[in-house]
Design goal:
Lambda Exonuclease, Chain A, alpha+beta, globular, single chain, two-stranded antiparallel ribbon, 7 strands
């Protein structure tokens, strides 16, 4: 049996998730430790709408390379193409909007100037004694910055509700993208010994998409996010390795299906 390429072709495999932490996995553990462990043990999976993820990957693969985009379309064509109705055989609405988003980025001269460098770069490092991995959309080593494309259904200036912080905030803050930028910056520093400027290039899922570069020049919020991650990760890593009990959130579908919700409420 061939060895797995945990940072390449098998980056998204369960084996890679067991060997390394990622920010997406960290967020799943923060949401519900019990569910995250069950997912890692392949004892639980949720029937979630994959359309938003596929739309994002459709846009990402286009700017990775023509080959990557063709592979993506080949592997996901049955999901993206309408099978019935007046649009049978055509791209579904969400993916037609993805095409418009691609056009919007193509016509944005600033994006073309920023999105220069190595694509889909896997980076690794250690945060508070714990192995982490990340995959960066575009890394410009010489100029010292990296770019991640983020697609959002919100307008770029919109505030959205955060369940964790119980308030409204910018969408990229609420969805954990500031934390992701902070972690990537740290991993890159460990790997290359230099500071990199994080850039989110946002494109909206609108009929007329908007685009914008969000450049993180201040370290204040990045350091806050990284400090919180460093504080939490040791305890969560113990849970992941089975050395500590996984705490249920008592609200998610996993908890509801396993009888882990509160059965009595004192009002």
């Amino acid at each position: 049996m061939m060895d797995k390429d945990l940072l390449g072709a098998d980056y998204y495999s369960v084996e890679s998730s067991r060997a390394y932490w990622s920010i997406s996995q960290y967020k799943r553990f923060r949401e519900c430790e019990a569910r995250a462990v069950a997912e890692l043990d392949e004892e639980w999976s949720e029937d979630r709408d994959s359309t938003p993820l596929l739309v994002g990957n459709y846009v990402h693969s286009y700017f990775e390379s023509q080959e990557a985009h063709e592979v993506f379309k080949s592997e996901n064509g049955s999901t993206m193409i309408a099978k019935t109705g007046a649009t049978k055989g055509q791209l579904k609405k969400d993916f037609k909007i993805a095409e418009i988003m691609i056009q919007a980025l193509q016509s944005d001269k600033q994006f073309s100037e920023y999105y220069v460098g190595e694509k889909e770069v896997a980076v690794t490092g250690v945060i508070n004694g714990t192995d982490f991995k990340g995959k960066i959309d575009c890394l410009n080593i010489e100029s010292g910055y990296f770019v991640d494309i983020k697609t959002t259904k919100s307008q770029i200036d919109d505030l959205v509700w955060s369940d964790e912080y119980r308030t409204k905030m910018r969408w990229f803050e609420a969805y954990g993208y500031v934390l992701q930028m902070a972690a990537y910056k740290e991993l890159l520093y460990q790997q290359y010994g230099k500071e990199f400027t994080p850039i989110i290039y946002a494109v909206t899922k609108e009929d007329v998409p908007d685009t914008r570069a969000i450049v993180f020049q201040s370290d204040e919020k990045l350091k806050y996010e990284l400090t919180e991650l460093s504080t939490m990760i040791s305890k969560l890593d113990a849970v992941k390795k089975g050395l500590a009990e996984a705490i249920p959130c008592k609200h998610c579908n996993y908890c509801k299906s396993h009888g882990l919700t509160d059965k009595v409420e004192i009002y």
